[in-house]
Design goal:
Structural class: mainly alpha
Largest sheet: 3 strands, antiparallel
Strand order of the largest sheet: 2-3-5
Helix content: 55-70%
Distance between the termini: 44 Å
Oligomer: single chain
Strand content: under 5%
Shape: flat
Order of helices and strands: HHEEEEEHHHHHHH
Radius of gyration: 24 Å
């Protein structure tokens, strides 16, 4: 047995743990992305994958400002008269600005610098890079499943491909100056990755676990999942509206974020009542029938957290942290409901 084979078999023996770490890394990306949105740092780096043409972002405005007798590397970006320019080659500036050495950055016209926004966005990107390496380990750990469980390496390769697609979407988000539709697709693909990772985890960790099957509970669970998908869809529409308001009135005028909202916002807000009722019905059945689904308790807690942060965002003009908590809690809620559905689906198959 070669050292490579031994290493792959070792990774296979740790597959469940690697899958959990991979899942955690995705949720950390969601958290980092939520902080970016909460702080308005989405355009902290105007280019991708570098930041103002630097591998390590600038820490002061002086670094990206044209000055005489200053050296710039090819690809570095400066802000001059509220316009972004890219260095065409390695150069040292003379006394006067030479337009022949610079090309206007045409992908968007956002030409502002805020070191806090820049580093917040950069940390978000670093989280994605680290997660990408974790996904590579997941794929390597899945290779030795090929003979007996082909779906495991296939799904692992799909998740890695989707992470690459997410990276491309991240670039597109920056290139389009935070176009709401692209941001929504970015989030939806992230949820798909979470679902696939949870399915991989379910395959390896739910072999011997037994729960009690209850027909009514199963029906309420399906309704709950459908309701959550509807709520997420409506939530993305509300978020797009908020993004447009922020562009119109500025990030610091949060009191206008939900000024004259459309019907979609009121539907999103009121639909929470139906979601609460269905999930509390599941909670009640789980307790009374002693079904043993521990995830139900966490689902109810997250719905409570989602409701509270939603109320605070609307009535208290988005207090710090609430938007990040709301987005992250929604992603975790989706994951828990999906995993609970996998458990219930398995029991239904055994009961039929």
């Amino acid at each position: 047995m070669t050292k490579i084979n031994a290493f792959l078999y070792y990774l296979k023996s740790r597959f469940s743990k690697i899958t959990k770490i991979t899942l955690l890394s995705v949720y950390l990306i969601f958290l980092a992305g939520a902080v970016v949105r909460m702080t308005g740092s989405g355009m902290g780096c105007p280019d991708w994958p570098k930041c103002f043409g630097y591998l390590i972002p600038p820490t002061s405005e002086q670094q990206i400002t044209w000055q005489p007798n200053k050296e710039f590397k090819k690809g570095m970006i400066i802000v001059k008269e509220k316009v972004l320019f890219v260095a065409e080659k390695d150069l040292k500036t003379a006394t006067n600005f030479n337009a022949k050495n610079w090309q206007k950055y045409t992908k968007h016209n956002y030409a502002k610098f805020n070191k806090y926004h820049t580093w917040t966005e950069y940390i978000n990107r670093l989280a994605s890079v680290v997660s990408g390496f974790v996904f590579i380990f997941l794929v390597l750990a899945s290779v030795k499943f090929w003979k007996d469980k082909k779906r495991v390496p296939v799904l692992a390769f799909v998740t890695l491909f989707l992470m690459g697609f997410e990276a491309w979407l991240g670039k597109t988000v920056v290139d389009t100056n935070l176009k709401p539709t692209i941001i929504t697709i970015h989030m939806v693909v992230g949820l798909v990755i979470i679902a696939l990772l949870l399915y991989l985890l379910f395959i390896e960790t739910e072999k011997d676990k037994v729960y009690k099957y209850n027909s009514l509970f199963n029906k309420l669970l399906i309704i709950s999942v459908v309701f959550s998908l509807i709520q997420i869809a409506m939530g993305t529409q509300v978020r797009q509206f908020i993004d447009q308001q922020v562009k119109l009135y500025g990030f610091n005028n949060k009191q206008y974020s939900l000024l004259n909202p459309s019907f979609k916002f009121y539907f999103h807000r009121s639909f929470t009542i139906a979601i609460v009722l269905v999930n509390f019905g599941m909670f009640y059945l789980n307790q009374v029938k002693n079904l043993g689904y521990k995830l139900v308790n966490w689902i109810v807690f997250l719905i409570f957290l989602e409701t509270i942060t939603g109320i605070l965002m609307y009535y208290a003009d988005f207090p710090i942290g609430t938007q990040a908590i709301h987005l992250l809690a929604g992603a975790i809620l989706f994951g828990l409901q999906f995993y609970l559905w996998l458990q219930s689906r398995k029991l239904k198959a055994l009961a039929s």
